[in-house]
Write a structure and sequence with these properties.
By secondary structure, this protein is mostly helical. The chain has one domain: CDP-alcohol phosphotransferase transmembrane (TM) domain (Four Helix Bundle (Hemerythrin (Met), subunit A), Up-down Bundle), CATH 1.20.120.1760. It has seven helices and no strands. The protein starts with a helix and ends with a helix.
Length: 211
């Protein structure tokens, strides 16, 4: 049992490293170009949020395929701002807070857009799934923020914002084939968000036992 727990502890930080490496290779070509312009990381952050708000408007108006594409682009900008800040030495504490705040608002706006879509269609299951996905997604991020404010590490987790963004975008894109794909995507987000909440709570609890 002890070896199984220790193996999980080794795997979870490894996932965080894989995400960082993938984000690095995805963003560097664009970051190198942006670094030569007067565009600031905060401007990128705001633009990413506006894209998410635009995707929510597309969802409400039932342009789900277009919304899925915009969600992917917004997700790219979500990792681009931090990469640009590090490249140009413009990292600030306020910039980090602004980025986290707008990230949470972006997720909330998208899921609220889906709730509005389903309320208009009277689809109770969809309303419930999107309604549960909203707080569970925010809790995943909140636990990390709260843990790190206490000086604890919490970069672990199977299903972070990146995975949620990809699954939601795929659900929207595939809804062009069948609306059921968006429902499946929401169900995946709910289940794995709660799983990740459990992962992070256990990881933080294990650290508190040794401090």
């Amino acid at each position: 049992m002890g070896s199984a727990v220790s193996e999980k502890q080794r795997i979870m930080p490894r996932l965080a490293e894989i995400r960082k490496t993938a984000a690095y290779y995805l963003t560097q070509p664009v970051v190198r170009l942006l670094a030569k312009t007067p565009i600031t990381p905060s401007a990128i952050t705001w633009f990413g949020f506006l894209l998410a708000a635009g995707a929510a408007a597309l969802i409400i108006t039932e342009h789900l395929f277009a919304a899925g594409f915009v969600v992917l682009v917004a997700g790219f900008f979500d990792i681009l701002d931090g990469a640009l800040a590090r490249r140009t030495n413009q990292t600030t504490r306020f910039g980090a807070v602004l980025d986290s705040t707008l990230d949470r608002l972006s997720e909330a706006v998208l899921l609220l857009g889906i709730i509005v879509l389903y309320v208009r269609g009277g689809f109770i299951v969809g309303i419930l799934l999107a309604g549960v996905a909203l707080p569970s997604s925010l809790l995943v991020s909140y636990i990390r923020a709260r843990a790190e404010s206490l000086g604890l590490e919490c970069e672990v987790g199977l299903f972070t914002r990146a995975e949620r963004t990809i699954v939601l975008a795929l659900g929207l894109l595939l809804s062009q084939i069948d609306y059921a794909f968006l429902v499946i995507a929401l169900a995946i987000i709910v289940v794995f968000s709660f799983f990740t909440i459990g992962q992070r709570l256990i990881y933080v609890w294990q650290q508190t036992k040794t401090r």
